[in-house]
Amino acid sequence: MKISRAWKAYRDVGFSGYLDGFRCLVPGFVRPWDGMAEFDDPADASQYFAPHYERLIKPKVEVFEENRLKAIDDCRRRHMLVLPAVVAIFAGAIWAIIEFHAPQYTHNQKELAELLIYGSFFVATLFLAWASYPVVVYRQSVKSDIFPDVFSFFGPEFSYNPNGLIDMDEIEPSGIVPSYDYYHIEDGIKGRYKGVDLKISELKLREERGSGKNRRTVTTFKGIAVILEAHKDFSGWTIVRKDQGFIANFVSSKLGTLSRKKSAELENVRLEDPEFEKMFEVYGTDQIEARFLLTTSFMQRLLDLKNALDGKGLQCAFYQKKLLIMVSSKHNYFETSSVCEPATFVNDINIILREMAVIFDIINILKLHERTGL
Amino acid sequence: MEPTTIILIVLLGLCALLYFWYAGIITKRNKALEALSGIDVQLQKRLDVIPNILKIAKKFLDHEKGLLSEITALREKIDQNYNKHNSDEVKAHLDAARDLGGKMGQLMVQVEAYPDLKSDQTMVQAMQSYNEVEAQIAAARRFYNSAVNDLRNAIQIFPGNVIAGWAGVSDMPFYEAEERAAQAVDAAEYL
């Protein structure tokens, strides 16, 4: 097992893959395949999805079911191998914690013991990661082999890439990307819905804050970034950010992300809708263009979208002839379901249909497909 | 601290306050003038698009000579220079722009009644350009009205009204919508 491949597999599948390895140890959690596949139906998609499923996905079910059961067996076998060592490590660590609290040990000895305890926990984690690895690889194969077939249902232009499809270079000029030191992009989808080109990726941004003992890593953004074809022609730059209150807005505009993006070019744009002004803060390089893009109808639609997203953070930017929408959410989009579920992929498909409905709703609610000029 | 010093500090503070208030009023007036220029830029684009529309429409709407002449006259009126610092001249200019928008609206309604004209490719392109410009004018109007609103607040609220009087800064008119736009639409007029 190459380290880089393993690291990538864990990155693609996430911590849930690691936990799945434990879950499948319990026989009662593993559901056998009963040969059936039934869908929920967000907006009747299941009716239309069924023929697509029969044609593209069902032929792969048997092979994947075989792989799933093999992965569970491998995972259980590996856990049996490492469990004695892990139990011994934890027992030793507990003994060391109790023992080295005694006063007869020097400060240096206690520090060394602490280091060894942390080291042993790390080794135990590596053992368990090795044991869960077959499950993680299986779930990664679902993403790479099944998900593209699922997304092709939305249209021939739709494609899926587990590594993401948006570059940071592409979205940084928007001015709404929070500051970060590390980023992770995954689950990229590209396609065209109602004539509107779109590109989506799941994004996680983290930043180092504080210094010395107070140094910590903070998540500055977790959610999805959606790049859409804008519904109007424009040449400037307009951003719509969450209103953080007068002082925070002022500080943010002088010291925050905006300051890195030629803030001298951006002016505050005060609009007529009081509810919109309470929710959002607008900045633009051209006061007239900002109002051309943010008509009263469009402002209302942005408010409708914010409500439809159930209070999740929403920011958008018009720049370089495109519209970037960033929706922050704790939810992990486009993930595979547990290895304990049969390899019919019904759960995965239901979740994807629901999540894509949210994305398509962005286009529907904002009416980006209508060229009314409003 | 001596009373004289205190008085001096208070007076200096008052002068500074008055200066910043004055500077704020001037900034708001300049913003309104900038917004007015923004409207003029868009109005100029509209004036550039109109002759093409009139030329195409004339072939089909020869009997609407009255309307076409009014549009031409309004276009010439708007194209003239005016004093941006004179509130009456600004109002007259904006009223003429508003009236021109209204007349063009009437022309578009007439165009709808002629399928040949409506589907003429050059007319379709000209109307698309016109609609685009109208959207820009609407955006420019919103910016202008917002800037004028800020200026009015600054020069009507005490002590802004006193400072504005000293500085010779006067009110500017809003760019109001056409009266017809505020009335309910009677479908019977068109059917």
Descriptive account of the structure:
The complex is a heterodimer of chains A (374) and B (191). Chain A is an alpha+beta fold and 374 residues long. Chain A contains twelve helices and nine strands. A nine-stranded antiparallel β-sheet of chain A has the order 1-2-3-4-9-8-5-7-6. In chain A, helix 11 (296-308) runs antiparallel to helix 12 (346-366). The longest helix of chain A has 55 residues, at 45-99. By secondary structure, chain B is an all-alpha fold. In chain B, 79% of the residues lie in helices and 0% in strands. In chain B, helix 1 runs antiparallel to helix 5. Chain B starts with a helix and ends in a 9-residue tail after the last helix. In chain B, 26% of the residues are buried.
Task: Give the gist of this structure.
The complex is a heterodimer of chains A (374) and B (191). Chain A is an alpha+beta fold and 374 residues long.
